[in-house]
Amino acid sequence: MSTSSPSGGNRPLSPFMIGPYYRPQLTSILSITHRISGVFLCLGALTLVYAWVALASGAEMFAAFTECLASPIGMALVAGSVLALWFHFFNGIRHLFWDAGRGLDLATSYRSGYAVVALALVVGFGHLWLLYGRV
Amino acid sequence: MSLQTPGLQTPLARVHGLGSARSGTDHWTAQRVTAILLLPLTLWFLYFLTTLIGADYAAVRAAVAQPWIAALLAVYTILVLYHAQLGLQVVIEDYVHVRWLELSMLIVIKFIVLFGSIAVLLALARVALSA
After folding, report:
1. How many helices (H) does chain A have, and how many strands (E)?
2. A34, A78, A102, B34 — which has fewest CB within 10 A?
3. What is the ipTM of this complex?
4. Residues of B with CB below 8 A from A38's CB?
5. Which residue of B has its CA nearest to A66?
6. How far apart are CA B75 and CA B94, in angstroms?
7. Which residues of B make CB contacts under 8 Å with A?
8. What is the DSSP string of A26-56?
């Protein structure tokens, strides 16, 4: 299948349009952030599996698990997962409304996008404060 | 034959409604159904976790060992893994353009999800049954 066109083959194609050719918008940024947060949350899912296996394996294994979570890398992973989870949660609701055919027009998708960012930041950092703020 | 469907599709293939991709909307639907189920389950799970803040090993184990709790935690974790598998599959199909690598990654994530699901079931069953 040839993709040649009358204007030649040097035109920038989809992902490479980001940059000098194309101004990113809130909608496209949130779209890719939904994917990135989802991929990142896979680490959280595996951590959850590890948690139940450690819990079933005895007090020593579970202590090793909680030590992992309390290490600097563990805390960064938990904090990142909390923020990613709340973003994915609220933006996922936005996607479900779209799947139902609602809120697809430009004005509404921008309003829901800003609402998702605000909710994810407020609830996400509130959650982090609950976890770490009163240590 | 004049009233048959045009093209080379058999009537059975036409009824199945599947084209050359050999799959229909199952994947899309499963991703949405798991998403909707995960909304309330995630809120419950996060609430459950906050009740465990500061608890020692015995307290966590006793809380998880309650039958309804253990069952919900198993369903939640396996739905999370399945939802992750469905999402990762789309990401891999979209961005990995080397066919053997794409297929290998798809098989590996499905294996990890299967392995993880069985591990979760065994672990939570052990906790719930030894309380």
Report:
1. 4, 0
2. A102
3. 0.86
4. 84, 87-88, 91
5. B57
6. 29
7. 32, 35-36, 39, 42, 46, 50, 53, 57, 60-61, 64, 73, 77, 80-81, 84, 87-88, 91, 112, 116, 119-120, 122-124, 126-127
8. HHHHHHHHHHHHHHHHHHHHHHHHHHHHHHH
Packed helices A106-128 and A72-99: angle between N→C axes, nearest 10 degrees: 150
- Residue A22, phi then psi, degrees to nearest 5: -150, 130
Given a contact cutoff of 8 angstroms between Cβ atoms, the answer to whether B121 and A56 are in contact is no
Q: What is the pLDDT along chain A (135 residues), one digit of tens a residue?
A: 444 455 557 776 666 666 676 778 899 999 999 999 999 999 999 999 999 999 999 999 999 999 999 999 999 999 999 999 999 999 999 999 999 999 999 999 999 999 999 999 999 999 999 998 864
Strand partners, B61: none
Q: Give the integer Cα–Cα distance in Å for B115 and B85.
A: 12
B109's CB contacts (< 8 A; 6+ apart) are: B85, B88, B89, B92
